[in-house]
Write a structure and sequence with these properties.
single chain; alpha/beta; Rossmann fold; six-stranded parallel sheet; five-stranded parallel sheet; 13% strand; binds thiamine diphosphate
Length: 611
């Protein structure tokens, strides 16, 4: 496509010079550019395509960056990036050294709030509006929220607060009836009824007209129908719930009709109280293949634009996600207590097969990680074996629920933490870096990390036998490609695995670091250094030597290497060798003596094993 306008737009000020009747052309060019770039490098696609008119209309109407647009999640803000001075850098998005896949204050003054985890837009926007008023300044604050984002607890907390404070904040609800998968829950149902309630509205008018046309009896008939009409109010009057919460509601509006969008934004722009504009859009709009398959084109790898076919990488091992999903189905087949729970991520966490095979035991609770954990705890209290499949980064949302509910009640909830560790293109907001640290600080939870996909299966099986909460965390991407054992195996809780013995140094590795450490040992051997490599299996940094087989004596005596020089003092993927004669690490002075039986340890120190 030849671009007429896009190359001329280096900032929203340039956009505002374009005649408004030409804006649909700008939208077309924006969509075309997004598809052509993202098809080559991958990224989020369908949401930004759906939000293209909205993006243009917002920057056209508001004086950005003085006026603030706060995007929720930010995966739909690619068009915003392109229009705000990052058109030429757009092909670097989500790559090392390139621009971020999400709005980022460090990157641009147009990115008013760093986002990526859903549900922050209204709270962030309200904070800005309050600051504006306290400072006596004058600008607009606009929060853009998807219908999926609206189901997040924090978003509802923001609505609650904004409705009381009555600040000048405009909320745009971009309703495409989709989260990543079709949006779920009672709120989604309500929005749906609003959108489809338009038909009822017309029907009501028609009924009234017909009744009044009945000679003499008409007015009486109309009065009789009043109660019925009143009780159906929520259906007939769109947005009543928002009105009751203190917002002025406008909608539903066709979010792909530029004329309608500009008209409504002009109308509400100077409202001095909270206003919600409900627009209806189609995810994937403008790229017919994505319109048909919005789940598939939510986030994409490289693909062929004409056919939509994804470029396949040849002959890779199955992903950890797929291995987990399959193993859970196999286990659920034999154990009817197993329940699968996701917070709006059934595809991403590999629960889609489970959802089809065990629909009555599958729960997509919406983008509601906190609720997912407490809900699972309730299930566990009543004898079920819930498995909460969640990206490591999103479990951060539910830290307190893991502690306060699952751990303190010692409820047998299993957490399957996908995308543990560095995740790559999604960047810092999505790295699953903190799970081991924050989970291992909690009482009574068994935290495991498999070295490969085969061990993942055994760990899942083991997790479902533990008396209290457990978590297994595994990385993004493909497994090692090793054969899968035909039977599930229960692993001994807290017991690590010696993979290789050598008397010079010890390497204690966990999860995805095990194979690299074996490789390191091979290289060390070539240099004349013999290494013991232990697959720790369990994270218990605070437990020191508890993870070493037999308390460590099997390999390293009381913690020293065979020649007394090595000192293995930390779990994780950490290697430490204490030189001869140096002082023992203070944390391990008085470490368990040779052959002291585990059961001799004080009960409090055993809590972490879940026994
Ligand atoms: C706390 C949290 N959980 C899960 C996700 C993963 N996620 C990214 S986008 C998305 C769907 C958002 O839906 P919606 O707000 O309706 O935006 P749309 O993509 O439909 O435009 C989800 C669940 C997330 N970003 N944050």
């Amino acid at each position: 496509m030849e671009y007429k306008y896009l190359p001329r737009i280096d900032s929203p000020a340039d956009l505002r010079k374009i005649p408004r009747e030409e804006l649909p052309l700008v939208v077309d060019e924006l969509r075309d550019y997004m598809v052509s770039v993202i098809s080559k490098i991958g990224g989020h696609l369908a949401s930004s395509l759906g939000a293209a008119e909205l993006t243009v209309a917002l920057h056209y109407t508001f004086d950005t960056p003085k006026d603030k647009i706060v995007w929720d999640v930010g995966h739909q803000a690619y068009g915003h990036k392109i229009l705000t001075g990052r058109r030429d850098r757009f092909p670097t998005i989500r790559q090392y050294g390139g621009i971020s896949g999400f709005p980022s204050r460090e990157e641009s003054p147009y990115d008013t709030f760093n986002v990526a985890h859903a549900g922050t837009a209204i709270s962030g926007a309200l904070g800005m509006a309050v600051a504006r008023d306290l400072k006596g300044e004058d600008y607009h604050v606009v929060a853009v929220v998807g219908d999926g984002g609206l189901t997040v607890g924090e978003e509802l907390e923001g609505i609650n607060n904004l409705g009381t404070l009555q600040k000048k904040v405009l909320v745009i609800l971009n309703d495409n009836m989709m989260s990543i998968s079709p949006n779920v829950g009672a709120l989604a149902g309500y929005l749906n009824r609003i959108v489809h309630g338009q038909a009822y509205h017309r029907l009501r008018e028609e009924v009234e007209r017909l009744m009044l046309s009945v000679p003499r009896l008409g007015p009486r008939l109309l009065r009789m129908s009043k109660d019925i009409v009143e009780s159906a109010k929520t259906v007939l009057i769109p947005g009543l719930v928002f009105e009751e919460l203190g917002f002025e509601y406008f909608g539903p509006i066709n979010g792909h009709d530029m004329h309608e969008l500009l008209a409504v934004l002009a109308k509400v722009k100077n409202h001095s109280k909270p206003t919600l504009v409900h627009i209806v859009t189609q995810k994937g709009k403008g790229y017919p293949i994505a319109e048909k398959l919005p789940v598939k084109y939510h986030g994409v790898t490289q693909f062929d634009v004409s056919t939509g076919a994804f470029h396949k990488l040849p002959g890779k091992a199955p992903t950890y996600t797929a291995v987990f999903g399959k193993a859970l189905c196999e286990l659920a087949e034999k154990d009817s207590r197993i329940v699968g729970i996701t917070a709006a991520m059934s595809e991403g966490t590999g629960l889609d097969e489970f959802s089809k095979r065990f629909p009555e035991r599958f729960f997509d609770v919406g983008i509601a990680e906190q609720h997912a954990v407490t809900f699972a705890t309730g299930l566990a209290c009543e004898g079920m074996r819930p498995v909460v499949a969640v990206y490591s980064t999103f479990l951060q949302r539910a830290f307190d629920q893991v502690l306060h509910d699952a751990c303190l009640m010692r409820a047998p909830v299993a957490f399957a933490l996908d995308r543990g560790g560095i995740v790559g293109a999604d960047g810092p907001t999505h790295h699953g870096l903190y799970d081991l640290v924050f989970l291992s600080a909690l009482p009574g939870i068994v935290v495991m990390a498999p070295k490969d996909e085969n061990e993942l299966r055994h760990m899942l099986y083991t997790a479902l036998t533990v008396a209290g909460p457990s978590a297994l965390r595994y990385p993004r991407g493909n497994g090692i490609g090793i054969p899968i054992d035909p039977e599930f195996k229960k692993l001994e809780i807290g017991k690590s695995e010696i993979l290789r013995e050598g008397g010079d140094i010890g390497i204690l590795a966990l999860g995805s670091m095990v194979y690299p450490c074996l490789e390191a040992a091979t290289r060390l051997e070539a240099m004349g250094i013999c290494a013991t490599v232990i697959n720790a299996r369990y994270e218990a940094a605070r437990c020191g030597f508890d993870l070493l087989p037999g308390g460590g004596e099997a390999i390293l005596g009381d913690g020293r290497g065979r020649d007394g020089s090595g000192w293995l003092w930390r779990s994780g993927s950490c290697l430490a060798s204490r030189p001869k004669g140096s002082r023992q690490h203070p944390a391990h002075r008085g470490a368990r003596p040779h052959h002291s039986p585990r059961r001799a340890r004080p009960a409090a120190r055993q809590v972490w094993t879940g026994r």
